[in-house]
Structures are given as C-alpha cells and as structure tokens.
Amino acid sequence: YGYQVHPLWQSGVLLPLIYLMTSIMLGFSAVIFEATLSSVGFKRQLETPLLGKLCDVLWGMLLLFIALRVAELAWRGALPTAFVLDTQAVWFWIESALFVAPALLLASPAARRHPGRLFAGAVMLMLAGMLQRVNGFLIGYMTGEGWNYFPSFPELLVTVGLIAFEILAYIVIVRRFPVLPGEPAPAH
C-alpha cells in the first residue's frame, strides 16, 4: 500500500494490532447485539449481568484502543492530517466519534449494566469497526487523480443477500435446535 493509503489509516508497525483489537471489540459487540435482539425476538430475559461483565472487558479494551490509536497517529506525525478539511478527515472524525461515543456512554459500571446502553454501545462499536475497514480500503485508498471506487448495485445486493441469509439461518437454527438455554418455569 505505502503511499497509496492516506496517513490516517497507514500504520506499518501497529496496523495488525489495531485491526486485531477492533476485531475482538467487534466480536464482543456482536455478542451483545445478538443477545439483545434474541431476547427481544424470542421473548426471553436478557442476560444483563453476563453481558455487563463482557462489556467491562470491552470498555477497557476500547479505552486502550483509543489511546493507542491517538498515540500512533501522533508518533507517525499523521495527527495534523486529521485537521485538514477534506473527505478523509471528515470520515476519520466520524469513525473516531463512533469509537469514542460508546466509551463515554458506558463509562460507569452502572451504565454497563443498562440494557439500552449496552445495545447502543454495541451498535456504535460495530458501525465504528465496519467504518474503520471501509475507510482503510476505500476512503483512505488514494491511487491518483481521477480514480474512485464505490461498490456497484449488484455488489451491494450480494452483501445484503448474504446478511439476510445469515439472519434467516440463525432464526431457523435457533427454532429447530436447542441453541438458547431453556427459560425457567414461572413460579406459581
């Protein structure tokens, strides 16, 4: 990639660690997201204490990620490019806001036990992680004047179709197999 990737997403040394950390955070966020939707969709009680403990780890990792990301940009001298008024800087700040907002939203231990805040934080982190990847290979990829790329309509349809298929498969599997634990019998 070298000079073809915007400095805001170009990190030779720490790039693997940054992407590994966001992958782990995306996984934790996906668990919270799925558990919340499953509890609502299948009319089950949300496992808030368990998700809260998961969110404690997620929150700590998120703070470490934000500090590492800012320090890495400053160390490489790329931080000033975030303050240039261009498309890349705007998308960088949107991405950054989506990482920082859940850190603020879930700052207190009580907030990390609140179902609505857990869900909102998970959604924002999933969007942040997805946007980080899009920014790194699409927004931040600069091959020269006059070059641009955006997925075609059929490419977008394939993506939406795959996501829809995964959701359908999940629903079918959960309804046909004992994936979710049984609900305790109501007390009389």
Shape: globular
What is the strand content?
under 5%
Helix share of residues?
55-70%
Order of helices and strands: HHHHH
Q: How many individual helices? A: 5
What class would the helix/strand composition place it in? mainly alpha
Tell me how many strands there are.
Answer: 0
Radius of gyration: 19 Å
Stretches with pLDDT under 50, minimum 5 residues:
none
What does this 3D model show about the protein?
It is a single chain. The chain has helices at residues 15-41, 48-76, 87-105, 115-139, 153-176. With 188 residues, the chain is mainly α. The termini are far apart. Helix 1 packs antiparallel against helix 2. The protein contains five helices and no strands. The longest helix is centred in the first third of the chain and has 29 residues, at 48-76. The protein has two domains: 2-150, no CATH class; 151-181.
How is this structure best summarized?
The protein is an all-alpha fold and 188 residues long. The chain has helices at 15-41, 48-76, 87-105, 115-139, 153-176.
Task: Please describe the structure with a list of short key phrases separated by commas or semicolons.
single chain; 188 residues; mainly alpha; 2 domains; 0% strand; globular
